């Protein structure tokens, strides 16, 4: 007695639809570095992505309203001397983002309201002194003035 087996799943009859080209981000050089972290971070104003860069680490911050093809010369946030490993927006201020890097530092950046028009190279705060690379930056939701860093190596 053979019986056909059909897996019972609530997703069995769900079908996706691709987004239109004018609602997508195109031609962004996402980092090829394989690491156990987020390559992007999003808040109600911006989307940030770690990108390939020569001479250190960089990430790109785009306003959510800027979609379509992103020019290769679009300004980036570039202050780390090693590859950027993680980025995270502040939950209390949409213009603040933290980045961690292989250069043993964490940097806190302030993004202008309209987004970047020039490359951003000077962080608001630079936290140095770690003995190993900083792999992860986590947000602290209870205290608005505190950014918590976790070191996994």
From TrEMBL:
WD repeats lie at residues 77-111. It comes from the Eukaryota. Belongs to the WD repeat coronin family. Gene3D superfamilies: YVTN repeat-like/Quinoprotein amine dehydrogenase. One of its GO terms (biological process) is cell migration. Residues 4-68 form the DUF1899 domain. Pfam families: DUF1899, WD40. InterPro entries: Coronin, DUF1899, WD40/YVTN_repeat-like_dom_sf, WD40_repeat_CS, WD40_repeat_dom_sf, WD40_rpt. It comes from Takifugu rubripes. This is Coronin. The lineage of its organism: Eukaryota, Metazoa, Chordata, Craniata, Vertebrata. SUPFAM superfamilies: WD40 repeat-like. One of its GO terms (molecular function) is actin filament binding. Keywords: Repeat, WD repeat. The gene is coro1a.
């Amino acid at each position: 007695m053979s019986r056909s087996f059909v897996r019972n799943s609530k997703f069995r009859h769900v079908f996706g639809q691709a987004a239109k080209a004018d609602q997508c981000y195109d031609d962004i050089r996402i980092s090829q570095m394989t690491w156990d972290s987020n390559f992007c971070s999003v808040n109600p104003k911006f989307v940030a992505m770690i990108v390939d860069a020569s001479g250190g680490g960089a990430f790109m911050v785009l306003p959510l309203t800027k979609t379509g093809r992103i020019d290769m010369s679009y300004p980036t946030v570039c202050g780390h001397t090693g590859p950027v490993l993680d980025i995270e927006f502040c939950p209390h201020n949409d213009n603040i983002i933290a980045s961690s890097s292989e250069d043993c530092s964490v940097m806190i950046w302030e993004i202008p309201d309209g987004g970047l028009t020039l490359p951003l190279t000077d962080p608001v705060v630079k936290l140095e002194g770690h003995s190993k690379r900083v792999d992860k930056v986590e947000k602290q939701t209870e205290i608005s003035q505190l950014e918590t860093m976790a070191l996994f190596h």
